[in-house]
Input
Amino acid sequence: MTTLIQEKVRQALDILKEKDIDLWLIFVRETSVNSDPILPVIYGNETLTRQSALLMHQSGETIAIVGRIDAETSRLVGAYQNVIPCDAGISQYLLSELQRLNPARIAINTSLSNVMADGLSYGMHQLLVKMLVNTPFVDRLCSAEEIISALNGRKTPSEIALIQAAVDETFEIYQQTYNFMQPGQTEKDVSDFMHQQLADRNLLAAWTYEGCPAVNSGPDSPVGHAAPTDIQLERGHLVHFDFGVQKDGYCSDIQRMVYLLRPGESEAPIEVQQGFDLVRQAIEAARVVLHPGVTGLEVDTAARKVITDAGYPEYHYATGHQLGKRAHDGGGILGPQWEVYGDLPNQIIEKDQVYTIELGIALDGYGYIGLEEDVLVTAHGNEYLGEPQTKLVLL
Amino acid sequence: MTTLIQEKVRQALDILKEKDIDLWLIFVRETSVNSDPILPVIYGNETLTRQSALLMHQSGETIAIVGRIDAETSRLVGAYQNVIPCDAGISQYLLSELQRLNPARIAINTSLSNVMADGLSYGMHQLLVKMLVNTPFVDRLCSAEEIISALNGRKTPSEIALIQAAVDETFEIYQQTYNFMQPGQTEKDVSDFMHQQLADRNLLAAWTYEGCPAVNSGPDSPVGHAAPTDIQLERGHLVHFDFGVQKDGYCSDIQRMVYLLRPGESEAPIEVQQGFDLVRQAIEAARVVLHPGVTGLEVDTAARKVITDAGYPEYHYATGHQLGKRAHDGGGILGPQWEVYGDLPNQIIEKDQVYTIELGIALDGYGYIGLEEDVLVTAHGNEYLGEPQTKLVLL
Output
C-alpha cells in the first residue's frame, strides 16, 4: 500500500521534471524546535534531530542524509531509497552526493512570499553556503517555491478525501452546536461545548485551540483571532462562528452565522437579512470567477467589489487561502495586492487546489456577519466541499 | 498577577541591558505554518497571521506591530505596552518605530549554531533588508543569539517549578509502568500503557508521540528516535526507556533501565551490572564537572572519557541538552566539538539552566543500557530534579 507521504514524494519527483529542476534539497536541523513547513508533507510527523538533508532528484532518486539516531525512522518513512546515517557531521556525505549527481539547478526552501516554501532559516542558509564554498554548487542554488506551491497546492485524491472528511465532521459539530446553544450562555460556554465535540470525536482543532472556534455574539465581541469571551448570547444578537477541525492530519475551515430571534420575531430583521444576503452574494461572486488559469487577485477583486459597491468598508484580509494539512496552507491566495501578501495573489489557480472563500461585514447593533466555505478547484470551475450556508440559522 | 510571558519579557529587557543591545526585533509571519522557536517564550501559544514585528527596547519599551486580526490577542498577552494594528503592510509602522527609537544595534533571530535563536527564515531576512534599504538600520543588524541563549537558558523560579512538576509526573508514570510490564508483552504494549497514563493525567508527550516513550527490549531492538516495535519483552532482556512529559507547557526527559530476571536469577548477570555501573559512573563524572563557568565541552569530555576508557565505543550524541518548553531546548549543549554542533559546546554554563545528562552503551546479547537524568545548575554546582537511577530495576 502506498502511503500518503510516498504519494506526495512521487508527485514531487514529477514536478521536478515539469519545472526542469534537477535536485530539490531540503536542509533542516532539530525539527522538534524549528521545522520546515513542507516536512510533514514529504517526511511525516517524525522529527529530524541533527542537521539533515533530504534529496530528491529528477531521475527519481531519493536520499535522506540524517543523524544515526534518526536513520531507522527515515527508513520506515519508506519514501527515501537511500538512507545515509551520519555521526559527527553531514557535509562530506552531502558533498559526495552532489558531486555524483552533479545537478545544474538545486532548489532550496526559500521564498519572499510563500511561507510554506520558506522553511530554510537564515542561519541554515549560511551553513549550507559554507559547506558548498569552493564548489560549483553554491552558484546553482535556486528557490524551491514553484515546486512547493505545486506540490502543496495540487491535492491527490486521497488528500481531497481527507479534507472532505474533515469538512463533514465540521458540519456535524455545527449542527450539534445549533441544537445546544441558547441565550444566557456565554461565548465560552459555546466554545467549551464545541471543544468537547472535538474530544468526543477524537479530532484536533484546525488552528490554535483557544481560538478555534471563534464565537462572536452581538456587536461588542472582538472579531479576529481572539478567544471566546464571557459575553452572553442574547436575543437580537448575530452569532458568528469560525471553526475548523483536523482529522487524520487534514483540516477544514468554515464560518457560520446564527441569529437569535427576539420575542415575537419569526425571522431576522430586514437589515440583518440584507447584510447576510450581501455576504452570501460576495462569496458567490468569488466562486464564479474561481477556476484554473485565473489569479487569486481576480477572485478577490470580484468578491471585494460586491462589498464596497454596497457601501461597506472593505474587509482587512484576503478572500481565501488554501487548505490542507494546515488551515492556512501556504501558496497562492485569493487576495488583494497588498504589501503583506507579496506575490501570492498573482499565482495562477490550478486544478485540485482547495481554497476557502471567506469575507464579512460588521452590522451596527447586531454583530459581525462572516461566512466561509471550502471549495475544490475542478477542471473548469470549482465545487463546494459540503453545503454552503445560504440562509441564516434562526434560533 | 504576573504571567510567565510577562516574566520572560521583563527578563529579556534586563538581558538587553546586560548585553548592551538596544533593540530586539522578532520578525515573523503566518506562525501557524512556520513559527519562530522563541515565540512561545515571549508571546505564547497564539499565532501571528500576518507579517508581524515584536520590538523590545533596552529602555523597557515593548511594541507589537501585528495584523488587525491579531491585535486583540496581542493586547491580551499583556507583555506589549503598545500594540499597533496594521492592514495592508507593516513596513511604514516598523520604519517609524525604528526612526523614533534610533537603535545603534538591532538584534534579529539568526544563528549558525543555536536553533532556538535561528527563527528568522532566509526569505524573511531578505524582506526585512528590503524594508530597511536606504536607511541606516540595515547596517545595525546583529544576531540575537546571546539574548536568546541567556533568556532561554536562565529559568525563572516559576519555570523551574514547572519543569520539576513534569519530572515528578514522569517518575510516577515510570513506577506505574514497572508495576504493569511483564515478559510476553511487546514494546508497543508497554508504550500503549504509558500513552494511556499521559491521557489519564492530562499530559502531552515531551516529543513526537509515536517515539515517546522509546521502549527497547533486548539486543535486537533498534535504538534511536524510533517508535516501539512488536518485539516481545523476554526474560534476560534489558529494557531501555526514553520518556518525557509536557505538563503546563514544560518538559521532562528521562531514561530508565529495567532488567527482566531469568528463572533462578535474583540479580542481573555480572556483565549487565557492570555495564549499568559504568553508565551510572559516566553520568556522575559529567555531574561533578557541571557548574557555572565551565563549557559544555568540558562536561561532555569527562563523561565520554569514562566510556571510552572502559573500552566501549563512544556514543554518537551529546552528553546533554537543555530542557524547558521543549525537550530539546536549544542553547549551549554538553557536547563534543563535532561539525554538527557548531559552537554550542563552547558556550559557558550558567546558573538556573536545566540540562539532561544522558549516555549509554550497547551490551552484546542483552540490549542497550542508557540513562538520562535532569539537573538544575545552581550557584556552585548542580542538583538532580528527582532521584537518579542508581540501581537497575529488576522485575
Remarks:
- Chain A touches chain B through 66 residues (CB under 8 Å).
- Chain A has two domains: 4-152, 154-394.
